[in-house]
Amino acid sequence: MQSSFQNLVFSIQDKCCQIVMAVTGGGTEVIGEMLRYGGGSKILSEAVIPYSPASFDSFVKGKPDKYCSITAARDLAMASFQRAIFLNPNTSLKDLIGVGATSSLSKEQERAGREHKIHIAIQTVDKTFSFSPSLNEVFGRLDQETKTAEFILKMIAFSCGIETDLSDVDIFKADQDICNVVLGFKKVHSIPNVNNSYKNRIIFSGAFNPIHEQHISMIRKVKEIKNLPVDLELCVRNVDKPALNYKEINNRLNFIGNLNLDCVDAIHLTGCSTFAEKSIYFQHAQFLVGWDTLVRICDPKYGKLDEVIDCFVRNEIKFLVFHRISNGESTEKDSLNRIHPEILKISEIFGSDVLNPSDISSTKIRKGE
Asked: Which one in 73, 110, 186, 289 has a CA-CA gap of 20 to 30 Å to 10?
């Protein structure tokens, strides 16, 4: 096995790439293999083991629904790729690789029927690679550790164009416009193009993971009231969530597209992580938000409130607000004191007489609640 690893490492070194990897749950011996044969600095910029949930969350800047999943591996890979960009400012983006791997391997006194899984993702400048191989025929922790390391190394090689025996690797290649938003070369990409005029448009910002019935009800109701186009804004770098990879962006766009929503006029992919930043690029727009989002806008962690408000006023922004059910009660019972008076001045808040609030959430849907 060592000679096999050595050949793979030397083949990867010949590609002159720079790698950042985040490996958790198992397979961490791949880090040693990358360095064992010399020349490690040619390819390895950094390797981290975000083993605890707190470490994982800090690394990806968010909390996954499941820590051992292909989605979590993609989050690690994208965070690693962004780290590679930061560490290698003079290296071409096409030569940078982010690696994410998370696994659940055998352990002593484990519960009966516990599944042993590996999820590996690779992020490059224009592709997201995903691989979830089976460990059903590999028994014992040590053998599983070695097999996981082998799979990770082969995935790196595969993403470099090196021939391997891997099969069933999912490869998603993104359009250049989407790459430009994710990489920060472009702030907004609209589908279809709306000529950068938002004066008579309503923008509904969200993660839409997934878009659900209450989202759609809000869109239909506000469109009925205002008789204006309503667009969705999907931010690829949310303040409170992991940066989106190309596969995840495609999944969300496809899900929305398959609904054939006649009430949605356009979708804007953006790199605008705060509403202050959104207001700069969507000048004169009206933002459709839920009550909890309006409360968060007033949170100091999103910027100095006076400066945020000044940004909204300067760019002639308004907010259209619907309530929701939180902890069993409608947010209509919340005090208006939670909202800064200057924010209230530019907000139109609709009560339950306009649209019944709901406790539905994307998180609950993903968890099957």
From this structure: 73
